[in-house]
Amino acid sequence: MKKIMIEKAGAKIWRAKLVRPFTTAKGRHDLLENVLFSVELSGGVRGFGEAAVATHITGETVQETLKNLKEAARSVEGRSLPEFPVVAEEFRDRFAKNKCALAALEMAFLDAATREKKMPLWRAFGTRPRVLTTDMTVVLGDVPGAETATREILRRGIRSFKVKVGRDFDRDLKRVAAVARIAGKCPVYLDANQGFTAAQTLKFLKELGWLKIKPALVEQPVPKEDWEGLARVTHEGKVLVCADESVSSLEDAKRLIKTRAVGAINVKFMKTGILEAYEVARLAKKHGIKLMIGTMMETPLAVTAAAHFAAGLGGFDFVDLDAPFFMAENVTRGNFVTRSGVYDLRKIKAGIGVVPLLP
User: Fold this and answer.
1) Please, which residues bridge with residue 270 across strands?
2) CA 36 to chain centre
3) Are the beta carbons of 249 and 276 closer than 8 angstroms?
4) Alpha-carbon span 49 to 40, nearest angstrom
5) Which is it for strands 27-41 and 6-24: parallel, antiparallel or unpaired?
6) 161: which strand partners?
7) Residues 276 and 95 sit within 8 Å (Cβ to Cβ)
8) pLDDT tens digits for 189-220?
9) Nearest 5°: phi and psi at 4?
10) CB burial readout 46-67, b (16+ within 10 A) else e
11) pLDDT per position as a tens digit, 42-67
């Protein structure tokens, strides 16, 4: 049988306007500016991957990522599709400090391979696709803005809220109280994006307790290197703590699991690449650690790829795949999240099911 080869590959900057700035404790996105990576097989099938660059979180840059993926494109041309595991391992080392580039490369190969095999991407991770329902984020801002966002989210039909905190203690307290009041019995998650100390987080939780508000989860309350702080909030805060920025590798996950520093991990392709994300998720499930599937600021291409991962693998307690709701323009064809936040991938016949609208 003739081998399927990578005939062409390429990388380009990919931009899209946002509905509003996406603001967190560590920075903000005013514009989606990512890198699109593509491969074309000898039979004409194409696969696409996206590198979502979050400089304020990872230190990666768009230009660095573009340069690395252009070099990768030259390197993979002429390789055979069955070499993917070898190629992925090779670039895991080369892109050790540029994991979003690794994610884009792996995504494009997996998209092409599953399109070639005429099977949906979720089948690479499991035997059936679970239906997922995402939360939606209330970004940093003022109290009226949080109230408006909460009502908009409810009108969509979404019934779980992630509230960004970590920049202004008193204002954040009022914002969370406003969201909880309007959201009623809907679960509210807090995401500090490393913005608090352990002491501040515990005080914040105590203040919320006096208001009779108990968040369902607190995500990355302290700086990513503050392992002791994570453990302290877990043990003293009487709340489920989820590590995000603290887990950017399988080794990080092993350390957090060994020390029982958190009860949940947010799995993101852009932190680890896809194959290592799979290893992180399997390890966490084995040890009874809850899982969240999340993304950076990504288009429906990468977000739907993450949805395939979670839907196929299963076991994800929290779904944070709301990035497409913040986009002001369509840059892809195919979007499998409903207005009310439901991802049902059963109609996808091959690959991710989403392709970029290229000029």
Assistant:
1) none
2) 16
3) yes
4) 12
5) antiparallel
6) 136, 188
7) no
8) 999 999 999 999 999 999 999 999 999 999 99
9) -85, 125
10) bbbbbbbbbeebbebebebbbe
11) 999 999 999 999 888 888 999 999 99
24 confidence band (pLDDT: 50, 70, 90): confident
**Rounded Cα–Cα distance for residues 167 and 170 (Å):** 9
Residues 49, 62: Cα–Cα separation, whole Å: 15
Distance between CA atoms of residues 329 and 295, nearest Å: 19
Angle between helices 300-313 and 274-286 (to 10 degrees): 30
Q: What is the pLDDT of residues 263-297, one digit of tens each?
A: 999 999 999 999 999 999 999 999 999 999 999 99
Report the alpha-carbon distance of residue 197 to residue 203 in Å, rounded: 10
State pLDDT tens for residues 100-124: 999 999 999 999 999 999 999 999 9
Res 69 pLDDT > 80: yes
**Tokens for 60?**
């990666």
Cross-strand partners of 266: 292
Residue 76 to residue 165: CA distance in whole angstroms: 42
- Neighbour-count burial for 227-236, b at 16+ CB within 10 Å, e otherwise: bebbbbbbee
Task: Spell out the SS3 assignment of the chain.
Answer: CCCCEEEEEEEEEEEEEEEEEEEECCEEEEEEEEEEEEEEECCCCEEEEEECCCHHHHCCCHHHHHHHHHHHHHHHCCCEHHHHHHHHHHHHHHCCCCHHHHHHHHHHHHHHHHHHCCCEHHHHCCCCCCCEECCEEECCCCHHHHHHHHHHHHHHCCCCEEEECCCCHHHHHHHHHHHHHHHCCCCEEEECCCCCCHHHHHHHHHHHHHCCCCCCEEECCCCCCCHHHHHHHHHHCCCCEEECCCCCCHHHHHHHHHHCCCCEEEECHHHHCHHHHHHHHHHHHHCCCEEEEECCCCCHHHHHHHHHHHHHHCCCCEEECCHHHHECCCCEECCCECCCCEECCCCCCCECCCEECCC
CA nearest to 73, candidates 33, 96, 101, 31: 101
